[in-house]
Amino acid sequence: MLKWRIIAITASLVPLIIIALLLNVGPQDILEVGVLPFAIASAAAITKLFVQGIRFHYFVRSFVGRVTTAKSNIFARVGSEFLNLTTPAYIGGEFLRVAWLYKHGVSSGKGMWIITVEVISDVLVGSVLAYIAAAWAFLAGNYLIAFGILAITSPIFGTYMILLVMSSKKIFQIPKFSQPLIGKFMGPARALKIVNTCNDALGGLCQMARENLNSLSLKIFVVGFALTFLGAAIHAVTFMVLANTIVGIGFFESLMAVAASISIGTLPISPGGSGTSEFGIGAYLPTFGLDPVSFGSIIIAWRIASYHIILILSWIVLMKMAVSRGSIMKPPS
Questions:
Q1: 222: domain range?
Q2: Residue 204 needs a FRET pair 20 to 30 A away by CA distance; which of 15, 65, 312, 327 works?
């Protein structure tokens, strides 16, 4: 697993090198962005990550109650981001958070529900912004990126919405053919245990969906969506600050460009959207009459601030969680 993470981190640098070579961007060009703008962009990216941590803590307290301290909940979310950034389509950290909640006495079904609400919040807010970005690009004649955003966003949005609705109406279970299939590789006894564990978790998830998809939980969802949009807005600031070192770009333009980048970056072909995210934001810039070639150094600096800085921070927190014997990993008494 560690070797895979090292490979993923190394792979994330390859697109930046390719961009630099293709656009003739040297270290000096990147340094010309300036220390202060880069520091502000990095601080904004870190702030966005902690907003996600606050949202995770809010969902845990709202749906389960007090599990551990706010600091521990937030750090769990921050540390799990490392997995999202080193796997395709930004997935992986969810499993760590479910395991972390289980370690702290939360059933797997309730843990999956909290993670599901997190993902639904990201998908809903991200999809709305992506659709607006696609419409804006289409009106500007940037048809390729517009259709690309729609083609990637729509299946993801539709799938999660269908699963959310269906989970509140029926109990999902692992298909019956799964047990003998797993048994061929892991043995009958272990296969039975895995299937039963998954079915219990899915049953708990569906039960939580039935209990919470109602008007009484509306406030929780509204606050969660508001925090998600706040995170997206802060993410837009990371690009706006850097881009304004060469040309004036407003908040809306940055918000749309970053939304396009995230949408394209969800393609499951590279760890953490490496390469696809940079392509997405570069391909969207012509929507506002901007030449992506002249933004080569900005795109590289933005990717470092919004991805690699977060990668380092989340790795440090994750390692602290793994080795700490203190409150972060200690189950409640």
A1: 32-168+213-323
A2: 327
